[in-house]
Amino acid sequence: MAEKRDYYEVLGVDKKASDAEIKSAYRKKAKKYHPDLNPGDAEAEKNFKEVSEAYEVLSDAEKKQRYDAYGHAGVDPNFGAGGGGWGNYSGGFGGAGMDLNDIFESFFGGGFGGGTQRRADPNAPKRGGDIHVGLTISFMEAAHGCTKTVSYTRQETCPDCNGSGAKKGTSAQTCSHCHGSGYVMEQQRTPFGVIQNRRVCPHCQGKGKIISDPCNRCKGSGRVQVTVKKEVNIPAGIDDEQNLALRGQGDAGLNGGGSGDAIIIISVRPDPVLKRSGYDVYVDVPITYSQAVLGAEIVVPTVDGKVQYDIPEGTQSGTRFRLRGKGIKYLNGRGRGDQYVTVNVEIPKKITREQRKALEAFEATLKDENYEQRKGFFKKIKDMFDGK
Question: 136 near 196, Cβ under 8 Å?
Answer without folding.
Answer: no
